[in-house]
């Protein structure tokens, strides 16, 4: 029994938790940089709540709202320059995984000079701007992880800054910001969270703690799936209640706590290419591949696969694959040349070393083929 | 859904984890104060491992080995004076709950002046000496909590310093230091950990996270119980393997993570008097009362009581009471006047406010009577 547990972020959850707990922002700094995407933080009320809380604590702020989906290295360097120019001393991220992951890179780069070739090296000084996070989707778990996933055009994939420095100091979770999320985003992000918890259980770093959280998270997400499918079928999100939004947010929090301990596995490794080359949403990419990877795991570790399938309240891996097909509808067209290329990229990622059942390049190719060509 | 999760201590677990991870001590300071009891840290190898790690990192140290069982307020003021005199800048606690809880008080009092009447007020400056912890019993969970439980002779009970400041920076968990623990201590501490996890599930602050950890912890302890009973019967600890020591240590870690979120309940509130006035070991006191409290809970929340009993792999509360009787043998003699007094003290503790099912003074009296006079 050898392992480490570490997740130092303070998590505050509940309705209006930002405004009610504004004093927690007090210790962060005197001038904050709000890091967001272009629209949703303004539309869903989260940015307004943060501003209200900052004003009540007498904290000044600037806004950097230029984070795109799957943020680039260029974006975080730009944000860091802006942070330095405006002399902010803390960062507040509001949004889905993209603004949150970008904010971590910005917080690091605003505090110390790191050249682009060293950005993913892990070789940093122990300084960073303190951060508060407000997730406005329920999937990434970035609010409780030490990862900043950025698009690296040179490497033609996503890569991770992974350092304990970039755990946020505090994260505020309030499902009300998710009420206007569309069905597709809600499903994609929920399945991203599901993938985190399942992959955590399939990691060499899985522990009693991460497994206990993962099983709860899987159960919570699966309890919401019938309503998600109904919303998809009726094209109407009103069947997704606020209570369900909170549950999905809670489940994604647990999924984040899981991968903070375990990292992700082959599913994420493979999914990155789908996102980079085919612009397939991250959660959707994971969901499309999850069942095939679990099928591979089942061959070597049938008991473990069964524990996961049971936590999902299913009986066999095929049912998970069917369910994902129902969630995601028609699949993208991908040819065998593309698959060969993606398999070759996936096998080189760090995520593969995390796998309890390590696929080889042929296995990875086979999983892509089963997903897209059968 | 309203709650907070916070447990910022880095936990390192595994054989020889102190020496293998000595670099984690590097950031704590330049001169450490080792806080221990009189004997066990020297006898079980933990102090030698810490010294080896400190020396390999070039960190100087002093030793304060005057912590008694159920440490007093006087003891922590004395330790803090010694820390200031020796100009240490960090604290390393080695031992069971007593040295660990004392070390937290010392770390706080060495960094700031707090008068005795303010010691339990929660009103502190945000400074403390950084701490590393090495538990050498598997029960308290103090290595991952924000509590320092001290004996307050003026109030004739134990009282808690409770502040996020006193979470240790890092805790090292290695079951090998427990190999020479006697049967009685092993059982008492295991049941203390069991009580933490059960009480966590009975707290108003219970959450999905704390419940998930509590259930795992309860299962792990119950898996060790047959061996503990065998060791008790044969008066031979050799049936308690190193793997089992690790499991108990792991379970007590989870129990600590649970109460860091939930606090403890009526069981601890009642147990404090048994320890203060009758010198009954803390874990034993909790164990003797746990079944009676669960019986009270069962009347109002039968489903919750069943979840806990099932996690123990038992069928009814009576079986838990029987099991505790087997673990603890003949009970201490306590008369009705004493019970009245203890009930009156217990009802005034903060722990009662944590109870999902709040006992009144008559209920508490009845639980004592059922435990000691029937």
Automatic annotation (TrEMBL), chains A, B:
Pfam families: ADH_Fe_C, Fe-ADH. InterPro entries: ADH_Fe/GldA (IPR001670), ADH_Fe_C (IPR056798), Alcohol_dehydrogenase_Fe (IPR039697). Keywords: Oxidoreductase. Gene3D superfamilies: 3.40.50.1970, Dehydroquinate synthase-like - alpha domain (1.20.1090.10). It comes from the Bacteria. GO terms for molecular function: alcohol dehydrogenase (NAD+) activity; metal ion binding. SUPFAM superfamilies: Dehydroquinate synthase-like (SSF56796). Residues 186-369 form the Fe-containing alcohol dehydrogenase-like C-terminal domain. Residues 8-174 form the Alcohol dehydrogenase iron-type/glycerol dehydrogenase GldA domain. Belongs to the iron-containing alcohol dehydrogenase family. PANTHER family: ALCOHOL DEHYDROGENASE, ALCOHOL DEHYDROGENASE 4. This is Alcohol dehydrogenase class IV. It comes from Natranaerovirga hydrolytica. The lineage of its organism: Bacteria, Bacillati, Bacillota, Clostridia, Lachnospirales.
């Amino acid at each position: 029994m050898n392992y480490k547990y570490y997740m130092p972020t303070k998590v505050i959850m509940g309705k209006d938790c930002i405004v009610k707990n504004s004093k927690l922002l007090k210790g962060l700094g005197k001038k904050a940089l709000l890091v967001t995407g272009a629209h949703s933080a303004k539309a869903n009320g989260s940015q307004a709540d943060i501003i209200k809380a900052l004003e009540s604590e007498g904290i000044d702020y600037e806004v950097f709202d230029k984070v795109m989906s799957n943020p680039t290295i260029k974006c975080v360097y730009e944000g860091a320059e802006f942070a330095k120019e405006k002399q902010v001393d803390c960062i507040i991220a509001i949004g889905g995984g993209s603004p949150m992951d970008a904010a971590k890179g910005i917080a690091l780069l605003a505090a110390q000079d790191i050249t682009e070739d060293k950005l993913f090296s892990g070789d940093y000084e122990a300084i960073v701007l303190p951060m508060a996070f407000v997730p406005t989707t329920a999937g990434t778990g970035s609010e409780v992880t030490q990862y900043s996933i950025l698009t690296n055009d040179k490497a033609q994939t996503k890569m991770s800054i992974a350092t304990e420095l970039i755990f946020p100091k505090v994260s505020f979770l309030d499902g009300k910001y998710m009420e206007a999320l569309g069905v597709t985003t809600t499903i994609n992000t929920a399945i991203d969270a599901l993938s985190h918890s399942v992959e955590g259980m399939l990691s060499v770093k899985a522990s009693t703690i991460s497994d206990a959280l993962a099983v709860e998270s899987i159960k919570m997400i699966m309890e919401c799936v019938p309503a998600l499918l109904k919303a998809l079928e009726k094209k109407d999100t009103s069947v997704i209640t606020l209570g369900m939004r909170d549950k999905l947010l809670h489940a994604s929090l647990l999924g984040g706590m899981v991968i903070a301990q375990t990292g992700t596995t082959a599913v994420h490794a493979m999914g990155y290419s789908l996102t980079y080359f085919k612009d397939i949403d991250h959660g959707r990419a994971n969901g499309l591949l999850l069942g095939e990877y679990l099928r591979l795991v089942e061959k070597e570790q049938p008991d473990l696969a069964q524990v996961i399938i049971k936590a999902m309240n299913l009986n066999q891996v095929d049912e998970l694959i069917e369910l994902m097909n129902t969630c995601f509808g028609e699949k993208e067209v991908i040819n065998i040349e593309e698959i060969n290329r993606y398999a070759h990229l996936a096998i080189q990622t760090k995520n593969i070393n995390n796998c309890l059942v390590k696929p080889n390049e042929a296995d990875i190719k086979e999983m892509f083929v089963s997903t897209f060509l059968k």
